[in-house]
Specification:
Elements lengths: L3 E7 L8 E7 L2 E7 L12 H4 L15 E4 L2 E4 L2 H12 L7 E4 L6 H14 L5 E2 L2 H4 L1 H11 L16 E5 L3 H4 L1 H14 L2 E5 L12 E3 L6 H14 L5 H7 E2 L1 H8 L6 H8 L3 H13 L3 E5 L1 H4 L4 H14 L10 E3 L6 H6 L6 E2 L3 E2 L3 H11 L14 H10 L6 E5 L3 H4 L3 H9 L3 E6 L11 E4 L8 E4 L4 E5 L12 H11 L11 H11 L8 H4 L5 E2 L25 E2 L18 E6 L15 H6 L5 E4 H7 L6 E5 L4 E9 L6 E5 L27 E7 L4
Helix pairs in contact: 2-20, 3-20, 3-21, 5-14, 8-11, 8-12, 8-14, 17-19
Bound molecules: iron/sulfur cluster (SF4).
């Protein structure tokens, strides 16, 4: 044991933010050991965290900068690569440049990318994959509560007396939060309600399983609220003192359309189950409402989020432990990437770019001699793709840090068409991925184990990464690479950081929620929850205890009527198709599919088909079938199961050999521009031998 080093860090996969030690031998990371001190994971890890060391030493890691010359990628020096990028980026007008930041990268990298886009490229066309997972949360909860983040902490979920999980397969996507849901039931006697179109592992402990149709969330939530109001179970004092807009809410949710009988028809549920759920949520509190992308990834994603917030305000389940609206953010640092302003409308700390005072604040702080991007909103990533296909020539150059839109974005054929209309593409990553096919320059970055930094988990807890080993070849920190390009474009002074800690100090200076944080303070095992405004502030695990973060301190009811998904099943495409993830893989699989252990567990993708539907089509478990939507079709292995709702099909999106996003729809929520990954129409075809 004496030659082993244990270096504390935070898991690079999901937004739970478990801590572990990287085990280092002879300068090489050879294992992980869960942190016993961490209040998030208390000495436990899920399989992804357990094997989060395996991809680090993959021979596939990018090691040197490359430029595409005569169609071939050629290894070059950093000097040549950064000069080439600077010369090319300078050819374009600010409005022709755009950037994608990364929810997998650290806060320091995201802040650097935000500053690079606004100060060097002079554009607000910057976004990242939060657009695709929780932009509806950011927009929806900001309207309802004045803050678009999880209201409570992970540990206090175990203090709930009722957990209402809707649209979250917590056991597979956030396993160490799933543990808290079970603890609430086992240790605290909580009622456990699970609402989802699939009977997933998360449904196992359920006292009540609501297997409803995908895309009927607002109808269900409005129906629950009608029952609560009809029975007088609402929290009158909370509504009176802490909220506004209740009469508007009543006008919508008390409509006949949301009677329990009608809601049962829309959702496919038993009316008695809806009544039981309403009773438990209102009367068995504190109730923690937990949701994820089953709520957010819809054309009505913002309405869905508002409906969750409405239910919790109606029942007074906010501002106290064991309650709250708890969106589970997907990627390790998607909360941080949003906090850092890797968004087209915000500087760091959700300071609006269109507010002249904020514009002046950042211009003064950064001191770019020729100013920064104008005080106007930029394009969201989904809009960037539409602009590229619908108005070729408006956007010409894209700088991508740690994202893989060619597998993660909806309707891949549409994304390919968009990329074909770009003139200059830079990709900065740890592995060669599908998007690199379109890159003019590829730059190698170090991974989480090879760097110092911070990330912010789903409960707003800022935690440290510590460098355990050197990166491969000439790989560098993302913020360091951006600083080198910025220097080549004439902005060396604005990117003169010498360490991650110096970048963090700048973040703390300009970002009110992080103002009281420093690397020294973050060394404590449990990190710090934002807002943390002064060096003495212990952080804020539970938001909205006395008042909401809105201008007048009141929570706002935003009622909405139910609308069906943009594409519903019909005679030609009779199934409702939905997508998601599995326990052993992560997003586009660049890391988990290079982990031998995880890849062995689940080596390829599949489509889930309800047993009765499969029997009607003569499809057997394990056979290859054609799955076809209006976008495209693909051949994939059938997994025939009674666990999925009749009429619904499901695919995970990790696998390039059967890419679910070839089939998905890029219909967008009109407010936040999130795509509807969770519902589109599909046809299944049995493959018959010729
Ligand atoms: Fe990592 Fe999430 Fe698993 Fe924790 S629950 S070990 S953060 S993947």
């Amino acid at each position: 044991m004496t030659d082993l080093k244990f270096v504390p860090t935070t898991c690079p996969y999901c937004g739970t933010g478990c801590s572990f030690n990287l085990v280092v031998k002879d300068g090489k990371v050879v294992g992980t050991a869960p942190s016993q001190r961490s209040p998030v994971n208390e000495g436990k890890l899920c399989p992804k965290g357990m094997y989060a060391f395996e991809f680090i030493n993959s021979p596939d890691r990018l090691t040197h900068p490359m430029i595409r010359k005569n169609g071939e990628l050629v290894q070059v020096s950093w000097d040549e690569a950064t000069t080439y990028i600077a010369e090319n980026l300078k050819k374009y007008k600010p409005s022709e440049r755009c950037a994608l930041s990364s929810a997998r990268a650290s806060n320091e990298d995201n802040y650097a990318m935000m500053k690079f886009a606004r100060g060097v490229l002079k554009t607000n066309h910057i976004d990242h994959c939060a657009r695709l997972c929780h932009s509806s949360t950011v927009a929806g909860l900001a309207g309802s509560f004045g803050s678009g983040a999880m209201t409570n902490s992970i540990p206090d979920i175990a203090e709930a007396k009722c957990v209402f999980i809707i649209g979250s397969n917590t056991f597979e996507q956030h396993p160490l939060i799933g543990r808290r849901e079970v603890m609430a039931k086992m240790n605290n006697g909580a009622k456990y309600i699970y609402a989802d179109p699939r009977r997933t592992h998360t449904s196992s402990p359920a006292d009540l399983f609501l297997q409803f149709h995908s895309g009927t969330d607002v109808a269900l939530l409005n129906g629950l609220m009608q029952i609560i109001i009809k029975n007088g179970w609402e929290d009158k004092e909370f509504i009176e003192k802490r909220t506004k807009g209740y009469e508007d809410l009543k006008k919508i949710v008390m409509k006949e359309e949301y009677s329990v009988e009608n809601v049962a028809k829309i959702t496919g549920l038993d009316p008695k189950d809806i009544e039981t759920a309403a009773d438990w949520i209102a009367n068995n509190g504190p109730t923690a409402l937990i949701y994820s992308m089953g709520i957010t990834q819809h054309t009505v994603g913002v309405d869905n989020v508002h409906a969750c917030a409405n239910l919790q305000m109606l029942t007074g389940n906010l501002g106290k432990r064991g309650a709250g609206v708890n969106p589970l953010r997907g990627q390790n640092n998607v909360q941080g990437a949003c906090d850092m302003g890797a968004l087209p409308v915000n500087f760091s700390g959700y300071q609006k770019v269109t507010d002249p005072a904020n514009h002046k604040k950042f211009e003064d702080a950064w001191k770019f001699p020729d100013g920064i991007a104008p005080a106007e909103n930029g394009y969201e990533v989904t809009i960037m793709m539409n602009v590229l296909t619908d108005n070729p020539g408006e956007l010409k150059a894209m700088y991508i840090m740690g994202e893989n839109p060619l597998l993660s974005d909806p309707d891949i054929n549409h994304v390919k068409e968009a990329f074909e209309n770009l003139e200059f593409v830079v990709v900065q990553d740890i592995f060669y991925n599908e998007t690199c096919e379109y890159a003019d320059v590829i730059l190698p970055a170090v991974c989480y184990a090879e760097r110092d930094g911070t990330q912010t988990n789903t409960e707003r807890r800022v935690q440290r990464w510590h460098k355990a080993a050197d990166g491969p070849g000439e790989a560098k920190y993302d913020w360091e690479i951006l600083s080198m390009v910025a220097a080549k474009m004439g902005y060396a002074d604005q990117f003169a950081w010498k360490s991650s800690s110096e970048v963090f100090d700048e973040i703390a200076e300009v970002t009110p929620q992080y103002h009281g944080m420093s690397y020294a303070r973050l060394e404590q095992a449990d990190g710090l929850h934002w807002p943390c405004k002064t060096p003495e502030d212990p952080g804020t695990p539970v938001l909205h205890t006395q008042k909401f973060l809105t201008a007048d301190g009141l929570g706002v009811f935003f009622p909405a009527d139910w609308q069906p998904p943009a594409e519903v099943p019909d005679d030609e495409y009779p199934f409702q198709f939905t997508t998601g993830r599995c326990l052993f893989h992560w997003h586009t699989g660049t890391m988990t599919r290079r982990s031998e252990t995880l890849d062995k567990e689940v080596p390829t993708g599949w489509i889930e088909i309800n047993s009765e539907d499969a029997a009607a089509l003569g499809i057997h478990d394990g056979e290859m079938v054609r799955a076809v939507t209006r976008r495209d079709g693909l051949t994939v292995t059938a997994r025939v199961t009674p666990t999925i709702k009749k009429g619904t099909t499901f695919m995970p999106f990790h696998f390039i050999e059967c890419p679910a996003n070839l089939l998905t729809h890029n219909a967008l929520d009109p407010v936040c521009k999130i795509p509807e990954y969770k519902a589109c129409a599909m046809r299944l075809e049995k493959i018959t031998e010729a």
